[in-house]
Amino acid sequence: MNKKIGLSIAIIIAALIVPVCFHSAVHAGPIKLSYANFPPAPTFPCVQMERWKTEVEKRTNGKVVINTFPGGTLLGAKNMMDGVIMGQADIGCLCMAYQPGRFSVTNATSLPLGLPNAEVSSQVLWELYKAYKPKAFDKVKVLTMFTTAPSNIMSKKPVRSLQDLKGLNLRASGGAAQILKAWGANQVGMPMSATPEALQKGVVEGLFSSLEVLKDFKFAEMCRYVTMTDTVIYPFAVVMNKSAWNALPDGVKKVMGDLAAEQCKWTGTYMDNHVNESLAWSKKNHNLEVIQLPESDQTVMKQQLAPLVTDWKTKAKEKGLPADAIVNDIKKFKKQFGG
Ligand code: DTR
C-alpha cells in the first residue's frame, strides 16, 4: 500500500473512532451540573449551596459534580428563575420576595404571622410548598426551600421610636417592603446584592433584613444601630431545570430528593446561629447598639400590620387562590414545628 493511501485510511479510521471514544468518555465521566447564586460567596444562600454540593457529591460517590457560581457570575437575583427554566444554569437559588407577584403562595410566609426563627420558618415554607405545589414552580424541579431569620432594622442613625422611622429611606423587598410602608418608612426596593452600593452612596440610610448581613456584607461598618422588630422572614427556593432533572439517573434523583427537607432545616439552623455570631461580631468590632422600641410603639406597630394579612387574602382570592387555607396552614405548620 502506498504511503498516501495508508495515511488517508488512518485518518478515516481516526475520524470514526475518536468521536465514539469521546462520546463514551462523556457518558462514563461524572454528571456535571452548574449551580448559580446571586449574592457573594460568604453569604448564607451560598454557604447552604456549598453544603448541598458537598453532600450530593459525597452521597452519589462522585457520580455527580456540582460547579457553583456565587456572586451573580452565572445568573443574577432577578433572572434566576427564568435563567434556570431556559437552561442557562442547571440549578439556581432565588429569593422569592424579589418577584412578589410571581410566587404568591410561598410568599405568604412573608406575611406578619409571627414566624419566630429561620429553623421553624424554613420548615413551614417547605411544608407549605409540598401541600400546595404552586403553579409558579411547574416548569422546574424544586430541590429545597429555606428562609432567613426574622427581619430587623439596621440603620446609620438610631431608630429609637416609631416616629424615627417616618420617612426614613430603608431598603427592603416583597413582604418586608409592605411592612416598612405600614410603619411609615420610605421603603426602597432592590435585591440584597445591590444594597452595599446603595448604602455607600446614601441612596438608603439602612435596611430591613435578617441580621447575619451585618457581618457577611460588613454592613455593621456603616450601620451602627439595630432596632429589634423580629418580624418578617424572606423565603428562598432552589430550583433545577426540568430537562436536566429528567436526565438524572434514579439513584441521583433519590439522593437529591432525600436531601430536600434535611437541607431546609440545616440552612434554617445555620442562619439562626449565624445571626447570633454576626451580632456578637458587630458589637465587638463596630460597637453596634441594639435598640428595643418602647412597648407602646410596639403595640401600635403590631396593629398597623394587621391589615396586611386581610389585603393579601383579598388579592390572593382574586387570583383564585385558597387564601384562608394558606394562612391557616402557615399557622398550623408553625405550631407543628414548635413556633
Ligand atoms: N432578607 C432578604 C434576603 C437576604 C437575607 N440575607 C441575605 C444574604 C444574601 C442575599 C439575600 C439575603 C433581603 O433582604 O434581600
Bound molecules: D-tryptophan
Number of H- or I-type helical stretches: 13
Share of helix among residues? 40-55%
Spatial sequence of strands, sheet with the most strands: 7-6-8-5-9-11
User: Helix/strand-derived class?
Assistant: alpha/beta
Shape label: globular
Unreliable stretches covering 5 or more consecutive residues: 14-26
The ordered string of helix (H) and strand (E) elements is HEHEHEHHEEHEHEHEHEEHHEHH
Strand fraction equals 15-25%
Number of strands: 11
Radius of gyration computed on alpha carbons:
24 Å
Question: Biggest β-sheet: count, sense, barrel?
Answer: 6 strands, mixed
Mean pLDDT: 93
Distance between the termini: 84 Å
Would you mind describing this structure in some detail?
The protein has 339 residues and is of the alpha/beta class. It has 13 helices and 11 strands. The strands form 2 sheets. Strands 7-6-8-5-9-11 form a 6-stranded mixed β-sheet, covered by helices on one side. Strand 1 (31-36), helix 2 (44-59) and strand 2 form a beta-alpha-beta unit. It is globular, with a radius of gyration of 24 Å. The site of D-tryptophan has 13 residues, from helix 2.
Summarize the structure.
With 339 residues, the protein is an alpha/beta fold. The chain is built from 13 helices and eleven strands.
Topology overview:
Elements: H1 3-28, E1 31-36, H2 44-59, E2 64-69, H3 80-86, E3 91-95, H4 104-107, H5 118-132, E4 140-147, E5 152-155, H6 162-165, E6 169-171, H7 174-182, E7 186-188, H8 195-201, E8 206-209, H9 213-216, E9 225-228, E10 235-241, H10 242-246, H11 250-286, E11 289-292, H12 295-318, H13 323-336
Parallel strand pairs: 1-2, 1-3, 6-7, 6-8, 9-11
Antiparallel strand pairs: 3-10, 4-10, 5-8, 5-9
Helix pairs in contact: 2-11, 5-11, 5-13
The structure holds D-tryptophan (DTR).
